[in-house]
Specification:
Elements: E1 5-7, E2 13-20, E3 23-24, E4 42-46, E5 48-50, E6 55-59, E7 68-75, E8 78-83, H1 94-98, H2 100-113
Antiparallel strand pairs: 1-5, 2-4, 3-6, 6-7, 7-8
């Protein structure tokens, strides 16, 4: 119930061996603050459905289904988020982990979740 997405009742893995680039929908969001330029390729994600009131910050491209990649929401008085890929090194290849935006994405996400974002 706390997640800003609904998980599907079946195997929801989306494998994209050729890779895809995240489509950024809300570059001004504090989680994406300071992350500029093209994101490295990702190799997969889980298919989910955003819940009403959730904000999809990034998604897979339309040709790969347009499914949510990074989604935020609230639960009670707190914040919640979902990243539908992994954190590496399977669907998130080494090039993504080595990317300058990788650490910033996770720092920003944790700061936003803990409500200490600037």
């Amino acid at each position: 119930d706390a997640l800003p997405v609904t998980c599907l009742p079946y195997d929801d893995r989306i494998e994209i061996p050729d890779g895809f680039r995240a489509e950024i929908l809300a570059p001004e969001h504090p989680i994406l603050k300071g992350i500029t330029g093209e994101w490295p390729l990702l190799l997969g994600a889980n298919e989910v459905e955003p819940r009403p009131g959730a904000e999809v910050l990034a998604r897979l491209p339309a040709e790969e289904g347009g499914f949510p990649l990074l989604v935020t929401g609230t639960h009670g008085r707190g914040r919640t988020a979902v990243w539908t890929s992994d954190i590496g090194p399977h669907w998130v290849p080494n090039d993504f982990v080595a990317w300058s935006g990788y650490g910033m994405l996770w720092r920003n996400l944790l700061a936003w979740l803990s409500d200490s974002a600037q």
